[in-house]
Amino acid sequence: MKIENYDIPDNLFYSKEHEWALLEKPNFVKIGITDYAQKALHDIVFVDIPKKGTIVEMMKSVGTVESVKSVSEVFSPVSGSIADVNEELRLNPELINEDPYGKGWIALIETNNFPEESKKLLTPIQYVGYLRTLSK
């Protein structure tokens, strides 16, 4: 799905803070920032990623993304424990600009409450509607 020049995959959940969540397998959710967020930041030069084992709470900061324009916090769309991180971002933070939904993922979170927490996230259709309100 597309709105303006932003890609919105239809298999993800979204937050109003422009993070995405993908249920990879039972109890494991991959997260990252959206195409909208990476385009707003422009050229990403540094990513502060969380450490494996870190306990995270839904909509609390798990790191930062720094661009030539600004520094933005990354909020976890789910609660749980960091099971894995994208180590490639340490040397190649521009992967977020190049492929925000693929090679630019930030962390994999082990969660046991995704069915309940996903109700607080936006569907692709809802996220598109939200982006439309931002462009007015």
In the CATH hierarchy, the third-tier topology is known as OB fold (Dihydrolipoamide Acetyltransferase, E2P)
What is the arithmetic mean of pLDDT?
A: 95
Ends distance:
20 Å
Tell me the total number of β-strands: 11
Strand order of the largest sheet: 3-4-5-11-10-7
Number of structural domains: 1
Helix run count: 5
Q: Beta-strand percentage?
A: 35-45%
Element layout with pairings:
Layout: E1 2-3, E2 6-7, E3 13-14, E4 19-25, E5 28-33, H1 35-41, E6 44-48, E7 55-56, E8 61-67, E9 71-75, E10 80-85, H2 88-91, H3 95-98, E11 107-110, H4 114-117, H5 124-134
Antiparallel strand pairs: 1-2, 3-4, 4-5, 5-11, 6-8, 7-10, 8-9, 10-11
Characterization of the model:
By secondary structure, this protein is an alpha+beta fold. The chain is built from 5 helices and 11 strands. The chain has a 6-stranded antiparallel beta sheet with strand order 3-4-5-11-10-7. Strands 6-8-9 form a 3-stranded antiparallel beta sheet. A hairpin with a 3-residue loop joins strand 8 (61-67) and strand 9. The protein is globular and about 40 Å long. The chain starts with a strand and ends with a helix. The model has no long low-confidence stretch (mean pLDDT 95).
